[in-house]
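Slide 14.
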Amino acid sequence: MFVFSEKMSIFAPNYSAILMRTLKLITNIIVAVALLVIAASGGSDSIYRILLVGTLLICILLGYLLWRARVYNRKLASENRRLHAEIEQNRQELQLQPQEPQQEQLELQPEQQEQELRPEQQEKKIVQLQVAPVEEPSTEQQLFSRICKLMNEEKPYTEETLNRDVLAQMLCTNAKYVEQAIRQCSKGETVSDFINRYRLENVARLLISTSDPIAIIGELSGIPSRATLARLFRNAYGMTPSEYRNITPKT
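Slide 15: predicted structure.
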């Protein structure tokens, strides 16, 4: 359900500020050098004009870079909004049970299907339905269902110490069984990835539903390290938590 992006969006918010500081620093250096040269040359007008022209050219160049930075930030914000829309769409699709569309399609035209079958075929179909055994979920699927129920109801992922062994203790089972169930039923995820997915989803919810600082949200979600939170969130959502909060409408 995650969207991955290689864009360096983590540096975008400070790009303009860095250019402004660089512009001020270079301007101050040029002015200082100009004053020293003028003082050493006895105030020659030609040297003063040369330094003035050079200063203006550098300011124009830095102004152009600043304009390009603003354009880049706008494009990046647009890309982040697109990524957010894809994330929400993927999340909604994953929340739907895969069997529901098939069941709805079968329920839409039951009479038409019955009319297309001849009496002999209808009788044969009834016999097949009576004889066909009901497929029960495997041991791994049953355990995975218990794990998901535990994560949704008790929210143990909010504790930093949650791992494979702790999950096994809470479910009164073996840690190896927990690892196998998650890997088989969650498209090859490791236990750590599975737990972090719940944590990051909780972070995303709190970012748009509260105004708490990001550091507090990380602690409430089981990720107290700000650096770790920024890295995991960017890998999963393609942007930083701050960018996600800024482009997402409040609920």
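Speaker note: The chain has twelve helices and no strands.
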